[in-house]
Specification:
heterodimer, A: about 120 residues, mainly beta, seven-stranded mixed sheet, four-stranded antiparallel sheet, B: about 110 residues, Immunoglobulin-like
Chain lengths: ~120, ~110
């Protein structure tokens, strides 16, 4: 059973550097989501793709953040000019998008530390 | 979005049943209830989902009273590996944005 995978699992970077994370969803899932989670809090929605189309972006996603999902397969989340406040766990989830109650399956996350 | 309120933490012992109650007084007719479990340094894992009455799967049971203003997640005979954060979410059908609160940290002791 191949679940959602994310790479890298951990990333340490210096303030001002750019970072890129990758998410590979479950193969037959056409919806893909990005969330951010800080210590002691639940995940917060960042953005959502239906196939290759990015349909919504949260206000949390500043202009330093960009996400893509070319060809509706894997997705990348890039953060430019990282700040210490960007330190968090970045979670990717995917779902089939067919049912009214569309269960989202999460990956293990990428933990970002900005020094 | 209907807000949820759940206890911050709960302690239990191995072999006991753990019941976590979530309040969602403003739940709408087209809202349903979902519970996720999260271990440290992992993504949330779907546990169970329901709209009304009782739902049971191999992991847990979900009890929803007729007024749907609350729900109770029941974990039978917990083990140490059930120590995790449990999130109660309320969302509308076809609403793709999951809204997580702070969750309930359940600690199971030997």
């Amino acid at each position: 059973d191949t679940g959602v995978s994310q790479d890298p699992r951990h990333k340490i970077t210096k303030r001002g550097q750019n970072v890129t994370f990758r998410c590979d969803p479950i193969s037959e899932h056409n919806r893909l989501y990005w969330y951010r989670q800080t210590l002691g809090q639940g995940p917060e929605f960042l953005t959502y793709f239906q196939n290759e189309a990015q349909l919504e972006k949260s206000r949390l996603l500043s202009d330093r953040f960009s996400a893509e999902r070319p060809k509706g397969s894997f997705s990348t989340l890039e953060i430019q000019r990282t700040e210490q406040g960007d330190s968090a766990m970045y979670l990717c989830a995917s779902s089939m998008g067919l049912a009214l109650t569309d269960t989202q399956y999460f990956g293990p996350g990428t933990r970002l530390t900005v020094l | 979005l209907a807000k949820t309120t759940q206890p911050i933490s709960m302690d239990s012992y191995e072999g006991q049943e753990v019941n976590i109650t979530c309040s969602h007084n403003n739940i709408a007719t087209n809202d349903y209830i979902t519970w996720y479990q999260q271990f440290p340094s992992q993504g949330p894992r779907f546990i169970i989902q329901g709209y009304k009455t009782k739902v049971t799967n191999e992991v847990a049971s979900l009890f929803i009273p007729a007024d749907r203003k609350s729900s109770t997640l029941s974990l039978p005979r917990v083990s140490l590996s059930d120590t995790a954060v449990y999130y109660c979410l309320v969302g509308a059908f076809n609403d793709y944005k999951l809204s997580f609160g702070a969750g309930t940290t359940v600690t199971v002791r030997a």
